[in-house]
Specification:
By secondary structure, this protein is mainly alpha-helical. The chain is built from eleven helices and two strands, in the order H-H-H-H-H-H-E-H-E-H-H-H-H. The protein folds into two domains: 124 residues, Peroxidase, domain 1 (Orthogonal Bundle), CATH 1.10.520; 129 residues, Peroxidase, domain 2, CATH 1.10.420. Helix 1 crosses helix 4, helix 2 packs across helix 4 and helix 6 packs across helix 11. 44% of the residues are buried. It binds protoporphyrin IX containing FE. Protoporphyrin IX containing FE (HEM) binds next to helix 2, helix 6 and strand 1.
């Protein structure tokens, strides 16, 4: 059972500490908020929102960080570590890494112009992480029906899927995640027909090969958290297969159309974030409060 007032007496400064750290991270990295939001998603989908994604590998332990969706891709760890270091001074052994990620994700959204919500708190940190559970994370080639199944396995429905995918309203992706759409889609010898011609030629020139070059997920308003993502999908300007499929499939297209209204999108997004934030949480005396987010406590 999580609660938005969990730290009201034990660490009242937690929200200002996180907000100012995310804000200062954004000064040097305009993608910081996007990285933190994605970090939360990747934490929650593999073994629950328990900070497991933050654990570093050791010689005898392989966690989630090096799994395919995360390796050379996931960011924001430095921001979480620095927030943790500040909180260990102001409120020692009190605030879990899993909760820090959940607040930082919210603040990344708010500071990019998105909606706010009361983050529910009281998660504890895992003492394990699961390399294999990282395969619960959806890949960028999935179709709408496959995405629906992946989200359903976590207890999330189609509205949650489409709303949470709206996170791709900011941040970037590497060419290698979508380059297969550009020249030889599904071995057809031609590009993906559901990709707008002018975006296709732009992307073909930026991504002649499946490189690690970064491209904005939202070509319209790349650093703003808004409903432009859904308008892009209607214009065949979604970047990943897993984005564009949401407008192409009758399973999801009506929800996409609904979320072109920013208030409808924001309303569902906040609800779906709270719901995702409850997946597989540890509470009470389960797990621990890590002193450093990258490692379990030594004693
Ligand atoms: C629906 C299935 C999803 C798929 C297949 C997917 C896949 C991806 C991929 C492939 C990237 C680019 C990674 C890279 O190139 O290194 C990415 C980036 C991103 N994803 Fe997703 N994602 C999904 C859902 C979500 C959800 C639910 C959220 C958060 C609520 C999210 C937030 C983000 C953000 C913010 C970025 C940009 C991160 C940055 O700039 O570093 N994604 N996603």
């Amino acid at each position: 059972q999580l609660s938005s007032t969990f730290y009201s007496s034990s660490c009242p400064s937690v929200f200002t500490t996180v907000r100012s750290a995310v804000s200062s991270a954004l000064q040097s990295d305009p993608r910081a908020g996007a990285k933190l939001l994605r970090l939360f998603f990747h934490d929650c989908f593999a073994q629950g929102c328990d900070g497991s994604v933050l654990l570093d590998d050791t010689p005898t332990f392989t966690g989630e960080k090096t799994a395919v969706p995360n390796a050379n891709s996931l960011g924001g760890f430095d921001v979480i570590d620095s927030i943790k270091a500040s909180l260990e001074i102001s409120c020692p052994k009190t605030v879990s890494c899993a909760d820090i990620v959940s607040i930082a994700a919210r603040d990344g959204v708010v500071l990019a112009g998105g909606p706010t919500w009361n983050v529910e708190l009281g998660r504890r940190d895992s003492t394990t992480a699961s390399f294999s559970q990282a395969s619960n994370l959806p890949g960028p080639q999935l179709t709408a029906s496959q995405l629906i199944n992946v989200f359903q396995a976590q207890g999330l429905n189609t509205n949650d899927l489409v709303a949470l995918s709206g996170a791709h309203t900011f941040g970037k992706a590497q060419c290698n995640r979508f380059q297969s759409r550009l020249f030889n889609f599904n071995n057809s010898g031609a590009p993906d027909p559901s990709l707008d011609a002018s975006l296709l030629s732009t992307l073909q020139s930026i991504c002649p090969t499946a490189s690690t070059t970064l491209v904005d997920l939202d070509q319209g308003t790349p650093v703003t958290f808004d409903s432009q993502y859904y308008k892009n999908l209607q214009l065949k300007r979604g970047l990943l297969t897993s984005d564009q499929t949401l407008a192409n499939s009758t399973l999801t297209s009506r929800v996409v159309n609904t979320f072109t209204s920013q208030s409808a999108f924001f309303n569902q997004f906040t609800k779906s974030m709270i719901k995702m934030g409850k997946l597989g949480v540890l509470t009470g005396t389960q797990g621990q409060i890590r002193s450093k987010c990258g490692a379990i406590n030594s004693s």
